[in-house]
Amino acid sequence: MQVPAETLDDFREGFAQLHADFDIPSEFPPDVLAAAEAAANRPLGGRHSDHVDRTDVDFRTLDPASSTDLDQAFAIETAGDDVLLHYAIADVGWFVRPGDPIDREAWKRGVTIYLPNGRAGLHPPRLAEDAASLLPGAPKPAVIFVVRVAADGAVQLDGVERAMIRNRAKLAYSTVRSQDLPPAFAELSRRIEAGERARGADRIQFPEQEVVRTEGGFALRFRPRNDAENQNAAMSLATNMAVADTLYAARTGLFRTMPRVDERRLGQLRHTARAFGLEWPADQSLTEFEHSLPRDDPKTAAFQLAVRRASGGASYEPFDPDTRPWHAAVAATYSHATAPLRRLADRYVIEAALAVANGRAVPAEIEEAFSELPDVMRDADRLANRVDRAAIDLAEAIILEDHVGEQFDAVVTDEDDRGVRIQVCEPAVVARITARRVDPGDDVRVKLVAAEPTTRTIEFERVG
């Protein structure tokens, strides 16, 4: 379903309104911009630098074609039966010093918030998209994690060091060829996936729901991840698990945790699958079912986003000697260490990993931050998720605006004190209705009675 091209201004105005409605940070204060400029001009390299010279290593990046805030570069080799990943992460900690204006502003923001019409960055563009970004060309400071991946997918952190690297190629998901990548790139991903299957992990590579320009106007579509994206994700997964194990063994760290999808939500997902015409055998787990679905089918993408909505909320937790932190989606202890340009917590995890891997005590300010970051990151993630949901709500309202009065097929997925939740079959929209004598799994016919872009709301009522 698409909308006419003349509604372009509705999107522009609506996305701009999101900034005001959610108080999204916009321009950086002058002192932050000045501090970023000074940090970007700080001399790098030289024999007194903390960074060893690794510019001879064939590092490259793989991201969306338009990305300029490049957190990760990689080089991969084999060592006997193991695959050895050299994962270079932007050294934000070298540019941002504790208590400086950039640091204070980052604690207010927490994460980078992405919108269809731009981003509200965690760091000023002078750093995030220039000096600290691992763009090709000049040598850049990085923290290199050396991760050993065994044949069964087990990971081990072999070393961490500050280094100067050179990105030899900025590769894009949409155009990358197998010959552009290291020979063991796909094998590393295969091993990580094998390890996940053995652990019974619930991880799903979620598609992107996006507004796209079409010949007749605009449409809301799902963009499934391609093989290159999925394989690229394996490198971050391997590194974050290896870092988490290392920090936990050292009795320190900040961990990303997530509970499993509970039985009630699993029941909702079964009804949602039926709404999309997907046959889910009663004896098949969620993970097995998701892996069996065709990758390029919009119904698969819609179902995967329903899984994301049903998943228990992820959170951050500092080290607790009485509890092993656990992330159900990867079925492992897990940290975030690979996106410091976009997530505040990663910078602190990286500094702790540097200390532990090199036999040093974790600095007191890092340990203190681990107890404060969970609340900061929770609020930042909550805002980012609300903004993301509001952007989709806006797109749905604009796309459905000219279809008020039309009827649609839907399936009841759940009922609570706020009403009956339904999954509209086409377009794939989740909504609530007031209805009596219905049960989860029932087919219903609904009529669209309102679609208001200004309030980002849609309203259906049951008919028949």
Structure description:
There is one protein chain. A five-stranded mixed beta sheet has the order 2-9-8-5-4. Helices cover 36% and strands 26% of the residues. It is of the alpha+beta class and 464 residues long. The chain has one domain. The relative contact order is 0.14. The chain starts with a strand and ends with a strand. The chain has helices at residues 8-21, 30-40, 92-95, 101-109, 125-131, 185-199, 227-249, 263-275, 286-292, 298-310, 344-357, 364-400, and strands spanning 2-4, 52-53, 59-63, 72-79, 82-90, 113-115, 118-120, 140-149, 155-165, 167-172, 208-214, 217-223, 254-257, 315-318, 407-416, 419-424, 429-433, 443-452, 457-463.
- Widest sheet, order of strands: 2-9-8-5-4
Helix share, percent: 25-40%
Sheet of most strands: 5 strands, mixed
Structural class, by secondary structure, is alpha+beta
Query: How many distinct folded domains?
Result: 1
Shape: globular
By DSSP, the count of extended strands is 19
From the N-terminal CA to the C-terminal CA, the straight-line distance is 24 Å
Alpha carbon gyration radius: 23 Å
Mean pLDDT over all positions: 88
Low-pLDDT runs = 1-6
Which strand-content bin applies to the residues? 25-35%
**What is the helix tally?**
12
